[in-house]
Write a structure and sequence with these properties.
The complex is a heterodimer of chains A (about 575) and B (about 100). Chain A has about 575 residues and is α+β, with helices and mostly antiparallel strands. Chain A folds into 3 domains: about 140 residues, Response regulator (Rossmann fold, 3-Layer(aba) Sandwich); about 220 residues, Phosphatase 2c, domain 1; about 160 residues, Histidine kinase-like ATPase, C-terminal domain (Heat Shock Protein 90), CATH 3.30.565.10. In chain A, about 40% of the residues lie in helices and about 20% in strands. Chain A has 18 helices and 20 strands. In chain A, the strands form 4 sheets. In chain A, strands 2-1-3-4-5 form a 5-stranded parallel beta sheet, with helices on both faces. In chain A, strands 6-15-14-11-12 form a 5-stranded antiparallel beta sheet. In chain A, helix 7 runs antiparallel to helix 8, helix 10 packs across helix 11 and helix 15 runs antiparallel to helix 18. The termini of chain A are far apart. Chain B has one domain: STAS domain (Transcription Regulator spoIIAA), CATH 3.30.750. The longest helix of chain B is centred in the middle third of the chain and has 13 residues. The chains are: A alpha+beta (about 575), B alpha/beta (about 100). At the A-B interface, loops of A face helix 2 of B.
Chain lengths: ~575, ~100
């Protein structure tokens, strides 16, 4: 409606005056101005008529029998509630105190008797403008409330859809503590965790630029890629490359995703980490020994596949080590003075955590103390992953998912990777995929993956690359081991690793035979302590020994051939 | 005016100077600055000497400029950052894409 039309539209005006003559004069005046008039002879009737006729403006005499103007004003204002109904006292009073009482009772203004038509017209117009403005503002506010509620409802529905794609994975595992707002995806934060088929875990935290729907849309494919690839046994680096490629393709140029990928290997006590644009991670070994793992990469979604580097940094760990990772929201928390928590705040909270307190609690408490608030914003994500002793820790149960397909039962497969491919490609997800076609093996995906990865890593690191496992005794040796591994992989040539898989069914279950052969020089398996032992012996912290011990425990038999560069493992499963 | 542009002495590059907060509110002005910066620009200099703050949408805007200026072949210098601004550029490893001095 046009404002000028609304302002000059006739008003429904309630007048209350006990003087018949005054009422008549006022009625005539208002009628001449084109307004519709309702008359009351005292306050009580005014209140009654206000309730039933809903007038736009009320003109009240201050002094009336039954109920005076003041009391009527109070009741009318209460009835009007949030609606602005201009309430004007018509009075011959002139003492300041009496006039003030009229205003205190809820009056908005005065018209003095005797009446002046010009003044009445101008005053009504002024109050009507105010009334209409108030109406417009209330309508807009109500509309905003409705829209906001719709938006929140939509977000909750969208959140449920998102949850179906990006289920929480294993974030509820006993070794993970985290804080992530249920609606954080709309502020651009994501946090995923997945068990790996061979044990261990992958954790991914991301922070998209921007807020709302655009950020949430970017999060969906990231969740799909992460959980899909993690469950198939791909490693963190492969998953990062895939996510990056996807984001480069779908995000506008000015959007990207700061991210952290953590690959926790509990069996070998090591962490692999990648940080692209998120705040420093903290690795805490004890109350005094801490390491900072800073961002060393560009965020995801910026560089094309040729330039993107998904190399993960390998860090030696111990059971009990805790890795703290967070999004920008932690550093950007502000207190009442407008200061930010910042890196300094994180450092203080972490360093002052006593030996008993969990670093996760210490940091959460630190943020609460600093901000003076118990609740956190949506754009703050914090996660703490603890390294655990793998024995006694299981996140991936045998998944006995029934399949309608019988699957292949008798088959043979030979797969050999050669030359440069050794340095560029991880064949384990592919081999696992082939084995998982057999329903009986699918239930044992963790054990099969462990078998394959132990065989493969042994063949690659000790066979092809000739890395001595005893380097890993010391922390200097550990770093040397992994830098040598990268260097030697870069220039590997003329080598191969060959897998021969054979599966057959029997009346009690099935048998998978797996031969892994490499082009390396082999090793003296005849005198290896683990292979000599008739009893199960854990030969200290020695990696190679540990890997062999693991194979020996899982497999029905393990035999070495040639110079030790050909291993044959037999694995049985039962109906 | 929070964003000013001028040519370098040799006329080869466009200098874009940002004052105050470099965030989403400067999006259009920053874009206008390089899109209407004239012809024959060989390189860009983003002068942050008077920028007090930079957020992730500013990083996004720098990426847009880089794309506009030729992607991998772009020549863009970001100069005179204060410590806070520099820290943000460092965490995101933007020195891999821009010359920061």
């Amino acid at each position: 409606m046009d404002d000028s039309v609304a302002e000059s539209a006739p008003l429904k005006i309630l007048i209350a005056d006990d003087s018949n003559s005054d009422r008549l004069i006022l009625n005539t005046l208002l009628g001449r101005l084109g307004h519709h008039v309702i008359e009351a002879v005292n306050g009580q009737e005014a209140v009654f008529l206000f309730r039933s006729k809903h007038p736009d403006v009320v003109l009240l005499d201050a002094l009336m029998p039954e109920m005076d103007g003041m009391e009527a004003a109070r009741q009318i204002k209460q009835l009007a509630g949030e609606r602005l109904v201009p309430l004007i006292f018509v009075t011959s009073l002139s003492e300041a105190e009496s006039l003030a009482q009229c205003l205190e009772a809820g009056g908005d203004g005065f018209l003095s008797k005797p009446y002046n038509q010009v003044l009445i017209k101008a005053k009504l117009q002024a109050f009507n403008r105010m009334r209409l403005m108030h109406q417009t503002l209330s309508d807009q506010r109500d509309l905003m409330h409705v829209r906001n509620r719709q938006l929140l409802e939509e977000q909750h529905v969208a959140r449920r859809v998102f949850d179906n794609v990006a289920h929480t994975g294993c974030l509820d595992a006993t070794n993970i503590r985290y804080h992530a707002s249920p609606l954080s995806v709309f502020s651009g934060d994501v946090l995923f965790a997945s068990p790996r088929p061979a044990g261990g875990m992958l954790v991914f935290a991301g922070d998209f630029t921007g807020h709302g729907l655009p950020a949430a849309i970017g999060a969906l494919p990231v969740a799909e890629i992460f959980y899909g690839m993690a469950s198939k046994g791909f490693d963190g680096g492969d998953i990062l490359s895939e996510i990056n490629l996807k984001l480069v393709r779908i995000l506008p140029k000015d959007m990207f995703c700061c991210a952290v990928m953590v690959e926790a290997d509990f069996a070998h006590n090591q962490l692999k980490i990648w940080n692209g644009g998120l705040p420093d991670m903290w690795l805490m070994r004890s109350s005094t020994e801490r390491f900072i793992l800073p961002s060393r990469h560009l965020p995801l979604g910026i560089l094309g596949a040729e330039q993107f580097k998904a190399d993960m940094e390998t860090v030696r760990s111990q059971p009990g080590d805790r890795l703290l990772l967070m999004t920008d929201g932690v550093l950007e928390c502000t207190n009442n003075e407008g200061e930010v928590f910042g890196e300094q705040g994180v450092r203080l909270a972490v360093e002052h955590a006593g030996s008993e307190s969990h670093p996760f609690d210490a940091l959460m408490d630190g943020i609460r103390r600093f901000t003076g608030r118990q609740k956190f914003g949506d754009d703050l994500t914090l996660c703490c992953l603890e390294m655990v002793d793998e024995a006694g820790f299981a996140v991936l149960p045998d998944n006995a998912v029934a399949s309608t397909l019988a699957g292949p039962t008798q088959w043979k497969c030979e797969y050999e990777i050669q030359g440069r491919t050794l340095g560029e490609f991880n064949p384990l997800p592919l081999l696992l995929h082939i084995c998982m076609e057999v329903p009986g093996l699918r239930r044992k995906s963790g054990e099969i993956y462990t078998l394959l990865s132990e065989l493969y890593n042994n063949a690659l690191e000790h066979g092809v690359l000739e890395l001595p496992s005893d380097w890993k005794y010391t922390s200097e040796g550990f770093d040397r081991y992994y830098s040598e591994r990268t260097e030697r992989l870069d220039r590997v040539s003329g080598h191969y690793i060959r897998f021969s898989l054979y599966h057959e069914l029997s009346n009690w279950g099935g048998r998978l035979s797996c031969v892994c052969e490499d082009s390396g020089r082999g090793f003296d398996y005849k005198s290896h302590p683990v292979l000599q032992a008739t009893e199960m012996v854990q030969s200290g912290p020695r990696y190679g020994g540990r890997g062999l011990a693991l194979l020996k425990r899982l497999a029905k038999s393990i035999r070495f051939h040639e110079q030790g560069n050909r291993v044959e493992v037999v694995y049985d499963w039962y109906f | 005016m929070p964003i000013q542009t001028r040519r370098s002495h040799d006329g080869q590059s466009l200098i874009i100077k940002i004052q105050g907060r470099f965030d989403f509110s400067t999006h259009q002005a920053f874009r206008d600055a390089y899109e209407h910066g004239g012809k024959n620009v060989d390189g860009y200099v983003v002068d942050l000497s008077e920028a007090t703050y930079l957020d992730s949408s500013a990083l996004g805007m720098l990426l847009l400029l880089r794309d506009y200026a030729g992607g991998d072949n772009a020549s863009i210098v970001i100069e005179n950052c204060n410590n806070d601004v520099r820290k943000i550029l460092t965490i995101s490893n933007f020195e891999q894409l821009f010359t920061i001095r």
